[in-house]
Amino acid sequence: MSRTSEPHCRTGFRNLWRTPVIQAFAAMGTLAAVLGAFMVSQPGVASAPARIQIEHAGHVAGEPITITGSGFGLNENVTLTVRHDDGAAEPDMGHQSWTVLAADGTFSTTWTIRPGDAGSDFFAVTAVGGISGAGDTGRFGRMAFIVTDKFDYAPGDTALITGAGFRAGETVTLQVSHTNHVSEAGAGHDPWTVTADPSGRISATWYVDSDDSLGASFILKARGEDSQLRARWAFIDAVCPPAPAPDAVVPYPMPGQACPTNLNSCTANDVVTTVVAATPLNGDVCGSADDTLTLDFTVQFATTANQRYDLGFYIAKDGNSIPGHTAQVCAGAAPQVGEGDGNSDASDCDSDLFLDLDHDGHLPDRNAVDTCGDLENNAGPVRMTFRATVACDHLDANHNLLVPSCRVWEQNANHQVACTSLSQAGTGSKCDCTDLSFAGHLDPCVTAYCDDGNACTADSCTDEGGVAVCHHDNVADQTTCDDGSACTTGDVCISGHCTGGAPPNCDDGNVCTTDACDPATGCTHVNNNGPCDDGDWCNGDDTCSGGSCSDHHGRCAPGQICDGGSHTCHECDHDGDCHDPGSPYCDTGSHTCKQCLNDGQCDDHDACNGSETCVANHCTPGTTPDCDDHNVCTTDSCDAAVGCKHDNNTASCDDGVFCNGSDVCQNGECTHRNDECQPGQI
To answer: What's the Cα-to-Cα distance from 582 to each of 112, 306, 391, 588, 605, rounded to whole Å?
Structure first.
C-alpha cells in the first residue's frame, strides 16, 4: 500500500534540490524567502506537497477510519472521495464525495466502511484542494476479526466467540482445528455456520471437549461465504502449571539479504522487539571499532495489538542505518509458522511459537499459501535465537552493543500478497527501525575495546557492576615485541614499553645507491648519480646511472686502442688495426702504424723498376735495370714479372766479313745468306 498510518519519507523532492536549475534558484535565497513567506500566507496556496494518511492499513466495517491531510492551502476546501481500488462505487455505501476545510493547510476527517458494502475489500481515498489543486491518494483494506473470551480453557469449558467486520447478513463458517496438525478425531472440529447481523458482527460458542483438548493448541477460523473475509484466533487447553520445559534451542543463521530501501520512516510500536540473551561464538570479542563480532542472540517479539502478521526481521551487519540508506551489508529472516524457541517463556503455558493467523488464499486469486509467522498478544511473546556477524563500531554511551535493525509486519490479515519469504513480509507500511540494544544481555567486556595495541601489556577486562573496566598490566621485561619501526632489531619490552634494538645493516655494497632506513618500510636504497669506478680504465671516468656504474665517458681518442693493463692509449696491436693504406703495418714495439717494417713489405712486384728497400719505415724505390745486351739480333725489353727480356729477331746485321755476303739475324746471331762474289771469284 502506498499510503498508510506510518509516514514515509519522500526522496523525490529532496533529490530535486540537487539539480543545477534548483541550485541556481537556491542562490537567490533572500528573494525566495520573501516570496515564499508571501505565498504561504495567501489563502489556497499550498506550502508543501499534499499528503494524506490513513490511521491503519486494515479496518473493520462499522468503525470510524481517521483520515488526515497536510500540505494543502490555507483555508481551502479539500474534496475527499473513497472508492474501491478497482474504481467501483456502489450507491448508499458512502462513496459520494465530501468536503472538509484545511484551515491551516491540514485537516482531519473520518469515513466508515458500511457493513453491507459488497465491493472489493481494498479502498483508495483521494483528496484534492479546491484552490491549489494539490492532491494525494491513500489506500487501506477491509478486515474482519474473531476472538475468544479467554486464551486458556479447561476441558469442559465453553469458549465464547465473537467477531466483527463481516458483510451484513452473510453466512460465516467457523471451525476449530489443532495447530499441531494432529488428527481431528475428537468432537467439535467439524465446521459450523452462523449469520452476521446487520452490523457484520457474529457470536457463537464452542465446547472444549475433554476427548482431545487437554494439552492442545487450537486455531479458530472464520470465513465469510459472500465476502470471503477471513479471520483466525489462537487459544489453548494447556496442561499447566507447571509450564512445559523449554525446547532445545538451535540458532538460526541469518542469511545475507539486500538492504531494504523502502523503510524511510519506521516508528510503529505495536510490535515490540527486545534482545533477551546474547552469547559471543567461541569467546569472540570486539578488539576495536573496526572489528566484527559473531554471536548467538535471542530476540523476543510481542504485539500490543490483538494480532499482527507476516513479521520480517532485518539487521545491518555493517553497523550503518537501514532507513538512512547507508547500510550496505544486511541480513534478515522471515520466521515461518511454527518457528521460534519453543516453550522459552516459563511464565505462560502456550508453545511460544509463531502462529498461522492470516489465512491462506489472499487476493487476488485466493489460492496463494501464506507461511510467514504471525503474532497474537495473548499467545506470546515469541522468542527466536539467531546467529549473525555484526560490526563492533555501533555502541551506546555506555559502550553496549547496538545493532541497526528494522522489523516489518502486516496489520491487516486480509492483505493482498501471500507471504512465504522475507521479500514478501510486511509492506513497509508498518515497521520499526529502532536499534537492537544488547545492554544487560551481553557481557560489557565483549565490546569494551580493551586491546590497547601495546604488546608489552597484558590486557584484561572485568565486569564491575555492569560496567566494563579494562586492565593493562606490564609483561615481563625482555619479552620480545615489535616497536613498529623497521629501523630497529631485537625489540624487547621494558617497563611496559617496546624498546628498539640495534639498527639493521642497510649497506647494499652498491656505491650507486644512497642507503638509509625508513621506520615504516626498513632499509631503502635510492639511486644516485655520484662518481664510481667499474674497474675498467679504458672506458674513462664513470658515473652512476639507474643504480649501477653504467655511465662512461671514454678514455682514448677515436681510433685508438686502450691497454687497460698499462693504462695507455695506442694506435695498434697488430696489422689489422692499421686501416690507412699508406701505413698498413703495425710496429708492435711502438704500437704505431708504419709504411713498412722490412724490405719485403716494399716490393711492388715490378722487376722493371729495380728492388725496393725499407729505409726508416718508408719504402725507397730501386734502380731500373739496363736490359741492353748489345746484340743487334735480339730485341731488348723489360717484363715487370721477370725483368729484362732479349727476344731473337730477323733484323739485318753485319758480321764484319764482306766476302760472305749480306747478313741477317737468325736465332740471335748474325748470319750471312750468300757470298758476295760470283762463283769462281775470290
So the answer is: 128, 124, 92, 17, 17
CA distance 437 to 430: 21
Instruction: List, for residues 171-223, the tens digit of each pLDDT value.
Output: 999 999 888 656 666 788 899 999 999 999 999 999 998 887 777 888 899 99
Using CA atoms, how far apart are residues 540 and 181, in angstroms rounded to an integer?
Answer: 102
Quick one: which of 412, 362, 416, 375 has its CA closest to 145?
412
Are 452 and 411 a contacting pair, CB within 8 Å?
no
Instruction: Tell me how crowded residue 24 is: count the other CB atoms within 10 A of its CB.
Output: 9
CA gap 5, 233 in Å, rounded:
24
Alpha-carbon distances of 246 from 238, 342, 346, 350, 587, rounded to whole Å: 15, 6, 8, 11, 115
Strands 375-376 and 230-237, by their bridges, are unpaired
Triad 467, 473, 477: Cα angle to 5°: 170
Residue 47's CB is within 10 A of a number of other CB atoms, namely: 18
For residues 29 and 95, what is the distance between their CA atoms, to the nearest angstrom?
Answer: 45
Which DSSP symbol is given to 522?
Answer: E
Q: Please give the Cα distance from 374 to 396 (Å, whole number).
A: 31
Q: Which residue has the cell 542469511?
A: 255
25: which residues sit within 8 A by CB, 6+ positions away?
32
Residue 614's beta-bridge partner residues?
619
358 in Cβ contact with 309 (< 8 Å): yes
C-alpha grid cell, residue 595: 709504411
Burial of 307 (0-12, 13-18, 19+ CB in 10 A): buried
Distance CA 614, CA 624 (A): 17
Is residue 229 a contact partner of residue 366, using CB atoms and an 8 Å limit?
no
Strands 135-143 and 58-60: parallel
Q: Which of 280, 301, 302, 328 is nearest to 438 (CA)?
A: 280
**CA 558, CA 579: separation in Å to the nearest integer?**
13
**C-alpha span between 303 and 580 (Å, rounded):** 113
DSSP string covering 143-188: E-EEEES-SB--TT-EEEEEEE-SPTT-EEEEEEEETT-----STT
DSSP state of 119: S
C-alpha distances (whole Å) from 124 to each of 49, 54, 57, 83, 115 are 19, 10, 11, 6, 17
Task: Single out the residue of 325, 287, 557, 269 nearest to residue 445, CA to CA.
Answer: 287
User: The pTM is what?
Assistant: 0.60
CA-based nearest residue to 257, from 164, 162, 177, 322? 322
Q: Identify the pLDDT of residue 512.
A: 94
pLDDT in tens, 250-290: 999 999 999 998 887 777 889 999 999 999 999 999 988 99
User: What one-character-per-residue DSSP string does 572-617 give?
Assistant: -SSGGG---TTS-EEETTTTEEES-SSGGGG--S-GGG---EEETT
Beta bridge partners of 549: 544
In whole angstroms, what is the distance from residue 454 CA to residue 636 CA?
118
Q: Is 435 left (phi over 0), alpha (psi -120 to 50) or beta?
A: beta
